[in-house]
Amino acid sequence: MKPLLIGGDWLRTSHGAGNVNPSDTADVIDTHAEAGIAETQTAIAAARDAAPAWGRSTPQERHDILRRAGDELLARREKLGRLLSREEGKILPEGIAEATRAAQILHFFAGEALRQTGELIPSVRPGITVEITREPVGVVGIITPWNFPLAIPAWKIAPALAFGNAVVFKPAELVPGSAWALADILHRAGTPPGVLNLLTGPGRVVGQAMLDDPRIDAITFTGSQATGARVAAARPGGRVQLEMGGKNPLVVLDDADLDRAVHCALDGGFFSTGQRCTASSRLIVTEGIHDRFVSRLADRLAALKVGHALEEGVEMGPVVSQDQLDQDLAHIERARREGGHLRTGGEVLRRQTRGYFLAPTLITGTEPAMTINREEVFGPVASVIRVRDYDAALAAANDTPFGLCAGICTTSLKHASDFKRKAEAGMVMVNLPTAGVDYHVPFGGRKASSHGPKEQGTHAREFFTETKIAYTAP
Ligand code: TXE
Q1: Average pLDDT for residues 372-388, to the nearest whole number?
Q2: Which residues neighbour 58 within 8 Å (Cβ) at sequence distance 6 or greater?
Q3: Is 141 in the pocket of ligand 1 (CB under 6 A)?
Q4: Percentage of residues in the chain with pLDDT exceeding 90?
């Protein structure tokens, strides 16, 4: 059984949960300890005790730990990428790419530890100076989803540590293996006891106990809207950062390069089995290119090789779990009932191993008001909305409660520029898939997608530090 990490010690529990491979449910990768309320409270106390000294540690010390951890992650990226793909179901090249990216994130924040600055400002009053500095927040609770088992934990843990905070980390139940490996690497890289605590276990117990505990100063969360709402409700007025998914539009205009548009829809909507918060799930297509685009994309989807995530040549792995598969199928069925046309996919696929394989699905003839265009599916499913012109496309793109990412494929500078300005989303892509972002710039959305300061890049400091303003008279 893989233990919890509390106060610098590895701790076994009486309960454990199996980590099942979604490509092959007969393959139980490992068993992980399940924390309860008592272990959660012990971990929070350990973080509380460790926070003051860690907050006073030197930038060099924090840099070296993150650097060493990043180096190890990079050196072991093939093995860790394989573990990630085995437990989450994204194909091996995607698993290895994510492990590499997690290492790059650790390296970036190793640098951020050294780049911390303050401001010294002359006062408007004679003789007085004003200093603006940033201090650690204290203890940060980190709650992560299953779809990026290494990258999301890395982009929350690394800035938390770089800016001098102690961490209580609760990964998603479905992907404890990657989380454990990351915590083990950071622990061996020299994180002092109590500065990083790992609690594997159920969200409704461990996560809830974290939300309820005032000894945690800040919570950063990525996951569903429902759980995000719980986090917000548990901490009214508190320091909370929420990333909760999207219903991201990809607009395809008549003047788009057809090959590029099809590639963007395929990559943005279906790579990583469509299980990305930035996935382009609504394809908004103008009349002149609609039929050619749909036909080309449907052919590409029907030919996509779906199978075991670790099998060579497979282009799309399984859905992550039975629950998620049921949810995807229910969405597809509802879209049909509401008047959508199933152009391709929609069926569960049989392979040599028992896994949650779903054919990539394209639903055409949909309207913005249909459920398929309002709720996040979080699977290999995209819907097509046919529109008259650019103005109608922009209106449809913004007709959603979400606002994470919005994309457009066009060769018109005028429309691209207008879309960049008017899309109601935190991130905009021109002639690029909506999913796939850089690790050194901010990430985050608007409207119902996000709450609080942006994650990643230099902007990460907004959430992980408190500003202090000190006045000094001679
Ligand atoms: O999410 P949850 P799940 C969406 C997607 C998916 C659905 C459910 O539609 O089908 O959410 O996925 C922890 N207090 N996204 O069940 O429950 C939980 O243990 C505190 C979109 O995985 O939100 C996990 O660590 N924490 C999203 C984390 O919250 C609690 C990515 C997220 O789990 C808790 C993932 C509680 N009461 C899912 N209950 C995106 N768009 O990026 C659970 N948790």
Answers
A1: 98
A2: none
A3: no
A4: 100
